[in-house]
Amino acid sequence: MIKIKICGLRRDTDIEYANILIPDYIGYVFAKKSRRYISPEQAAELTEMLDSRIIPVGVFVDSPVDDVINLAESGIIKIAQLHGSENEEYISQLRKKNITVIKAFIVKSENDIELANNSTADYVLLDAGMGEGKAFDYRLLKNTARPYFLAGGLSPENADKAAMLNPYAVDVSSGIETDGFKDFDKMKEFIDSIRKD
After folding, report:
1. What's the rounded Cα separation, in Å, for the pair 117 and 124?
2. What does residue 14 show for φ and ψ, rounded to 5 degrees?
3. Contact 5, 194 (CB under 8 A)
4. Which CATH number characterizes residue 107's domain?
5. pTM for this structure?
6. In this structure, are residues 148 and 167 in contact, taking their beta carbons and an 8 Å threshold?
7. What secondary structure letter does DSSP report for 74?
8. DSSP string covering 79-147, please?
9. C-alpha distances in angstroms, 77 versus 13, 29, 49, 52, 136?
10. What does R_g of the chain's alpha carbons equal in angstroms?
């Protein structure tokens, strides 16, 4: 069964939607440049409301490693997803604290897949960019040698195509929004499409 991550949750309503639909993971964006940014305090309140079956993930872009550790150790997040230039030493510091790590790779060539294959992160996420909502050339996936989260340009309209690639998980954000906010009907349609098998 392909796992589902709904990313960029920032309102009480978003959590209410998630609690009805029960994706496997939800993501909070801690990158201040993102329009989906939320503060650790906001994230703490949202995690309080979150169904315990759903795993909260923190999305970071070159944050100080101690900030990530603090959020994990306080229970606000359970997994750290790294979208910046975090290196193997950074990943090692998190794993020494028993923090599960997802490292994101922007896929433009076979070399990027090779980098992902060799990462010491627990999981890798393969994306087309930094949240632009575009897909990459899926033909590059033929050389993937490990389970991966698939991101970039996913939506209810192409969820079935994404599922055919058999990723470990799919990660969706803008594709299930209307006017920049999570849309319950789109979330449900996406989740139903992935889980229909």
Report:
1. 8
2. -60, -40
3. no
4. 3.20.20.70
5. 0.95
6. yes
7. T
8. EEEE-SS--HHHHHHHHHTT-EEEEEEE-SSHHHHHHHHH--SSEEEEESSSS------GGGGGG--S-
9. 19, 11, 13, 12, 28
10. 16
- Structure tokens belonging to residue 92: 């090692």
Active site residue 7: yes
Would the pLDDT of 130 be above 80?
Answer: no
Active-site choice (12, 127, 179, 192): 127
**pLDDT for residue 196:** 86
Cβ-Cβ contacts under 8 Å for 64 (sequence gap 6 or more): none
111: containing domain:
3-195
Average pLDDT over residues 146-159: 95
Partnered with residue 25 across adjacent β-strands are: 5, 55
Average confidence (pLDDT) over 123-128: 94
CB 76 within 8 A of CB 97: no
Domain count, the chain: 1
Q: Confirm whether 112 is a catalytic residue.
A: no
Q: What is the pLDDT of residues 89-104, one digit of tens each?
A: 999 999 999 999 999 9
